[in-house]
Design a protein that fits this description.
By secondary structure, the protein is α+β, with helices and mostly antiparallel strands. It folds into 4 domains: 147 residues, Calcium-transporting ATPase, cytoplasmic transduction domain A; 276 residues, Up-down Bundle (Calcium-transporting ATPase, transmembrane domain); 160 residues, HAD superfamily/HAD-like (Rossmann fold, 3-Layer(aba) Sandwich); 181 residues, Calcium-transporting ATPase, cytoplasmic domain N, CATH 3.40.1110. It is 49% helix and 17% strand. It contains 33 helices and 26 strands. The strands form 4 sheets. Strands 10, 11, 14, 15, 16, 17, 18, 19 and 20 form a 9-stranded mixed sheet that branches. Strands 8-26-25-24-9-21-23-22 form an 8-stranded mixed sheet, with helices on both faces. Strands 1, 2, 3, 4, 5, 6 and 7 form a 7-stranded antiparallel sheet that branches. Helix 4 runs antiparallel to helix 5 and helix 9 runs parallel beside helix 26. The N and C termini lie far apart (81 Å). It catalyses: Ca(2+)(in) + ATP + H2O = Ca(2+)(out) + ADP + phosphate + H(+). Its EC number is 7.2.2.10. It is a multi-pass membrane protein. One of its GO terms (biological process) is export from cell. Its main location: membrane.
Length: 872
């Protein structure tokens, strides 16, 4: 029997689903239901099998031309050429299939890492689990910023409003309630006691009993869900696809000219046709998009290890252009852990907390008394599992007391709390009353000025002395000095009572004990990251809701704020027009007391100045700024689901240093893609030069069609992939950010490709000519084939870096070493095995190999000499 969940009291739903809203499901029952109902996820499109991936490789236009040429070869009786071409095409298909499969697996692993979690009760404990493991009957917590992970019946709703626009199209969040609804048929938008998968908690909090999961949810029924993984092509990939089309037209034109010229020169029609087809296939870098995808995917995997999860592939490319990083302070630049840094008691300021208890004398007693009283006047505590529970400021006090050997549990047992006056914003104080052996002890902590004004005496060296105005002013001066150092300062005072009396008697005639100064300290690694940013031409900007004094102090310590910089508050920001902000934004390093709405203005102002902006955020209201930024970075630990959903990447450790590492990796990936393009296109130009010059000069063909295909479809692929994993250049963070929209061929890359390609072609022709002068045509072709292969392998070493190969290390990229060995082995397999008969090559003697090696090596030597004279 099924029931209509919104029509029932939640107690009836609880009973129907055999669960417990207090204890939740047991772990055993949850596993049983998971097997019964399946995972809480929507069905995805069927993944392509390896066989289909293999077949997809034959959809490429140039491969189809090659297959057509193979068929023509068979019809003309050239069986050997046809068989070899089929083998080469199949091997190329296998390589393409493996590349595509690896890229898909990388993206799938990425998707799993970014899958959201849900907070549930299992076996009486609150735990976070992947949403895919939710089952009917689970008790789920809902908080502002969460995606609702499944369909459920609400049984607790505190100011709960849910944005159901993804499901109903209604843009206004729906106020939720827990009462049963009488109607048996209601539109989704009117079921106010239900929460549905894929909707967003806009405000408040609540709890629900999961009623449906996966394809049984309302979202599953209409098969609409916003996929959190964007696998769209990056701008670079799209530009390269366009480049491929233009190159294709140009190369086909050149091949047509070669074909016609060859025919007019009375060369065999079939030979010229096969040469033109082979050259067209070789010269068009059809493998380039696959290599770019693999390079991006590998880079994404590296970033995961560095605590940055890339959700949207275009972000990898954009990261390399980042020129401004706008970052939160708390938790990103700082440790998100309030820590006691200074104490003032007994007329002395203690700056080194760890050293306090090493000193001798009565000082220890005063400090311990201060920390004991402060710890008693908190609601924070450390639970049995060592977790710190409570307000961060109070947790800092409890931890400082613990470092002094004071366990809160022990002092609370000795001096139990019997009454209290809670903190409020008017008094800015909190007071607790404790029973002790002498009667009752009243302890007050709060804003220094407020507490000091209620004190009439001073605790000094174990005695209670009168507190006159001059001493009060001295204490207030110490407070101001601490505050200037960005410390949050609390004053602590007490008094003893024989009887409790009324609340009005608690906070008067107090005895001042001391001041406690605390701060959320900067992360140790951030200072170096800020220095690295500035060295790389990236401006770090702090945006915080904290006070201006605190923000500036932290900014100075980290190097974000320097002399001449400006720091503004949200109020000041409101007074600026957008045009005024555009003009001033470059001078502002710190923003304090700002709201999430201000962040969007700041990002736009930088973008209006041509900057590529990275922005961090964690709250629901940060989503617009994260979307507006060129790179939105959500916090993995403290970020809401909405913030993560709007972000391009997620920082799993909420650390500023991670953003900088990601920028470095983004720059490296882009440079590696440039290297792969440089290598492939220069090799292609070289092959065109060889054939074009030979045809125009009436020379015999230096290379057979099968030689060209073998080199391009197999030999070149491995070094090109190895360039994609080249380690970061030592100076990668010494350069200014790449301008937005800069061509991949900027900084003279076209010239390098053209000139080095011509050199590769000429060296191959020289080897061929020398072979013709001394030997026969087969030997000459073997020398040309070997020279072309080895020259291209040395060219792969050339493009590894702008610096000398000796400086970066010949073997510093082990994948390049392996790829060169593999490519050389493929060459020797053709020459030294019976395959040479089918390829039309022969075994070379030592002299011939010497000529081949010297000619091939010369491209490396020439390039190294040029690099030497070009160095600064």
């Amino acid at each position: 029997m099924t029931i209509i969940y919104w029509n029932q009291e939640y107690k009836d739903v609880e009973e129907y689903l055999k669960t417990d809203i207090i204890k939740g499901l047991s772990n055993e029952e949850a596993q049983k239901r998971l097997r019964e109902y399946g995972y809480n996820q929507l069905k995805e499109q069927n993944k392509k099998s390896l066989f289909l991936m293999f077949l997809d490789q034959f959809k490429d236009f140039m491969v189809l031309i090659l297959l057509a040429a193979t068929i023509i070869s068979l019809l003309l009786g050239e069986v050997t050429d046809a068989v070899i071409m089929i083998v080469v095409v199949v091997l190329n298909g296998i390589l393409g299939m493996l590349q595509e499969n690896r890229a898909e697996k990388s993206l799938e692993a990425l998707k799993k890492l970014t899958s959201p979690t849900a907070r549930v009760i299992r076996s009486g404990r609150v735990v976070d689990i992947p949403t895919s493991q939710l089952v009917p009957g689970d008790i789920v917590y809902l908080e502002a910023g969460n995606f609702v992970p499944a369909d459920g019946r609400l049984f607790e709703a505190t100011n709960l409003r849910i944005d159901e626009s993804a499901l109903t199209g209604e843009s206004v969040p729906v106020d939720k309630d827990i009462k049963a609804l009488k109607a048996e048929e209601l539109p989704l938008g009117d079921r106010i006691n239900m929460a549905y998968m894929g909707t967003v908690v806009a405000y408040g909090r609540g709890r629900m009993i999961v009623t449906d999961t996966g394809m049984n949810t309302e979202m599953g029924k209409i098969a609409e869900f916003i996929d959190s993984q964007d696998t769209a092509a990056t701008p670079l990939q799209r530009r390269l696809e366009e480049l491929g089309k233009y190159l294709g037209v140009g190369v086909l034109l050149i091949c047509f000219i070669i074909f016609i010229t060859g025919i007019l020169s009375r060369r065999p029609v079939f030979d010229m046709f096969m040469t033109a087809v082979s050259l067209a296939v070789a010269a068009i870098p059809e493998g380039l998009p696959a290599i770019v995808t693999i390079t991006l995917a590998i880079g994404v995997q590296k970033m995961i290890k560095k605590k940055a999860i890339i959700r949207k592939l275009p972000a990898v490319e954009t990261l390399g252009s980042a020129s401004v990083i706008c970052t939160d302070k708390t938790g990103t630049l700082t440790q998100n852990r309030m820590t006691v840094m200074k104490l003032y008691t007994n007329d002395k300021v203690y700056s080194d907390i760890n050293a306090i208890f090493k000193s001798e004398g009565s000082t220890d007693n005063e400090v311990k008394f201060l920390l004991e009283c402060a710890a008693l006047c908190t609601d924070a505590f450390i639970d049995e599992d060592g977790r710190e529970i409570g307000d961060p400021t109070e947790v800092a006090i409890v931890m400082a007391a613990k470092s002094a050997g004071i366990r809160k549990q022990d002092i609370e047992e000795a001096k139990p709390r019997v009454d209290e006056v809670p903190f409020d914003s008017d008094r800015k104080m909190m007071t607790t009353v404790h029973r002790d052996e002498k009667g009752y002890k009243v302890i007050t902590k709060g804003a220094p000025d407020n507490v000091i004004d209620r004190c009439t005496s001073l605790y000094l060296n174990g005695d209670i002395l009168p507190l006159d105005d001059s001493i009060k002013e001295k204490i207030k001066a110490v407070n101001e000095e601490m505050a200037k150092g960005a410390l949050r300062v609390l004053a602590v005072a007490y008094k003893d009572l024989d009887d409790i009396g009324s609340h009005g008697e608690f906070e008067c005639d107090l005895t001042f004990i001391g001041l406690i100064g605390m701060i959320d300290p900067p992360r140790e690694e951030v200072k170096e990251s800020v220095r690295l940013c500035k060295k790389a031409g990236i401006k770090p900007v702090m945006i915080t809701g904290d006070h201006l004094v605190t923000a500036v102090a932290i900014g100075k310590e980290l190097g974000i704020y320097k002399a001449g910089d400006e720091a503004v508050t949200g109020v000041q920001l409101n007074e600026l027009t957008d045009e005024e902000l555009d003009k001033q934004v470059k001078d502002i390093s710190v923003y304090a007391r700002v709201s999430p709405e201000h962040k969007v203005r700041i990002v736009k102002a930088w973008q209006n100045n041509g900057a590529v902006v990275a922005m961090t955020g964690d709250g629901v209201n940060d989503a617009p700024a994260l979307k507006q930024a060129d790179i939105g970075a959500a916090m993995g630990m403290t970020g809401t689901d909405v913030a993560k959903g709007a972000a391009d990447m997620i920082l799993t450790d909420d650390n500023f240093a991670t953003i900088v590492s990601a920028v470095q990796e983004g720059r490296t990936i882009y440079e590696n893609i440039r290297k792969s393009i440089h290598f492939l296109l220069s090799c292609n130009v070289g092959e065109i030069v060889v054939i074009f010059v030979a045809v125009m000069l009436g020379m015999p063909m230096p290379l057979k069609p099968i030689h060209i295909l073998w080199i391009n479809l197999l030999t070149d692929s491995f070094p090109a992939l190895a360039l994609g994993v080249e380690p970061p250049a030592p100076d990668v963070m010494d350069k200014k950010p790449r301008p937005k929209g800069e061509s991949i061929f900027a900084h003279g890359l076209w010239w390098k490709i053209t000139l080095q390609g011509i050199l590769i072609g000429l060296l191959t022709l020289v080897a061929f000519r020398l072979g013709l002068m001394k030997k026969n045509l087969i030997t000459a072709r073997t020398m040309a084939f070997s020279t072309l292969v080895l020259t291209q392998l040395f060219q792969a070493l050339n493009v590894r870096a702008e610096a000398s190969l000796l400086k970066i290390g010949v073997f510093s990229n082990r994948y390049m070493t392996y790829s060169i060995i593999l490519s050389a082995v493929l060459m020797f397999i053709v020459i030294l095995t019976p395959l040479r008969t089918y390829f039309g090559v022969s075994v070379l003697n030592a002299t011939d190999w010497g000529i081949v090696f010297i000619l091939s090596l010369s491209i490396l030597i020439i390039t190294e000499v040029i690099k030497y004279f070009k160095k600064p």
